[in-house]
Design goal:
Layout lengths: L4 E3 L5 H10 L7 E3 L6 E2 L10 E2 L5 E5 L5 E6 L10 H9 L1
Parallel strand pairs: 1-2, 3-4
Antiparallel strand pairs: 5-6
Length: 93
């Protein structure tokens, strides 16, 4: 299982890195997408980004084969006991 972040901020990597440090997201890969090619806030999704942002933060759950199997807008505690069955399912999907 892998966790990555996608940042839409247009102020550059330094700004995003400082924010990630404040949140103590040490060691988490951060990908920049300031133009919305991967994730789109645009209702019309003019760039055909595969991930629409219905809220921020948002978590997409993706199988190893690349299929989106769910998403959850808002903050999520993925270490909570309630989340473990879903994560186990995704590990085996």
């Amino acid at each position: 299982m892998e966790v990555v972040t996608v940042a839409l901020d247009r102020r550059g990597r330094d700004t995003v890195s400082r924010y990630a440090e404040q949140l103590k997201l040490n060691g988490l890969p951060i990908y920049l997408d300031p133009n919305g090619y991967v994730a789109s806030l645009d209702r019309d999704n003019l760039r055909n980004a595969p991930f629409l942002l219905y809220g921020m933060p948002i978590t997409y759950l993706i199988t190893r084969s690349g299929r989106i199997v769910g998403y959850m807008p808002g903050a999520a505690d993925w270490l909570a006991a309630d989340a473990q069955p879903l994560l186990e399912y995704l590990r085996n999907a």
